[in-house]
Structure prediction request, 367 residues.
Amino acid sequence: MAIPSTGPSPAVPAETNLTVTVFDFSFVDALHGWALGSACPDGGECALRVWATSDGGQSWLKRNAPGTKPAWNGENGQTGHVRQLRFVNRQDGWAFNPGLFSTHDGGQTWTEEKQQVEIKNITVSAGSAWAIGRQCHPDVVNGCSFSLLVANDKFQGWIKAANQPAIPGVETQLVRTSAQEAWLLSWGAKANPSSQDTQEPFVSTLIATSDGGKSWKELSNPCSPGQGASTEILSALSGGQLWLICGGIPGAGNQQKVLFHSLDNGQHWEALKPEGLGTYGYLQASRESFVFTSPVQGWLVLDRYTLLSTADGGKNWQPALDYNRVNPGDRGIGPLYFEGQHGWLGAGPLIYRTADTGKTWQAVALP
Prediction:
């Protein structure tokens, strides 16, 4: 299958001494969105950056960034830093993980929200926002506990959900498709705030709610420890279709991957044997990277590789963008965000955008 055209390469950003990287996107419709990232001068300290678009990503403008620094995966102790972004409407949004900053004027100003927990995940659906908070005990191995938080009606504060779901692993993903439907994936070494055992067992669980979090039901999770999974990512569509991808321990640019599909909200799973998925590249569980936009069309961003797509529900995969063009020198790729047929992909200092569900892609330089 031919790789879609990306058009001519745009000019590089004017500040050529900066290494610009996009961490996350958030769009509230096909036109209005924001990007969070970093700008790092040669030999200097990286600064947090925010950009905004009102034309679907054809052009971007700098916005004020929260008064903190970029957060890096694996850093400890810097609980005020951020690396993810989520807006619920054109005015209200948050920069988070592990810190938390809020805006109520579309990103013109930001206010730090002091929390007793680290904010690891925020998801929005049907005009509401949920978050996963994590509280860790530094002297205890895997000594973390998790809580589900809900934003108030004016998005100016968070409270603990009345019914707290069980979250046993040290890694989590929260997926929502409506105000009522949500799935919570948890994996990794068992989180135990009181344990001194350095060999906590590997856990892999999936729970779901269909009543807005009033109750949660445990589902079977095919990414079992026996699969050797070290990374898990879930994608869901309203109506009951789920896809779950499991990745083994990565190394030398390769990672074993297994893909599962469910037609009944995760009650039963079918193991797919996809062509073209291969072992190249690593799964990215720390940001948006695995998205199905319809029962047949799906997308997967692989670190150390490129963007893959499927047009048959996950049975066959192929590169959507040429690796040497979108990820030259392995400088990094992702995140990925889709709003209907419109999509955006971060690739170093560029943002690739599509308005036709990936038939064509345009590369846009950030200011």
Notes: The radius of gyration is 20 Å. The longest strand covers residues 18-27. Residues 7-14 have pLDDT under 50 and may be disordered. DSSP finds one helix and 29 strands in the chain.
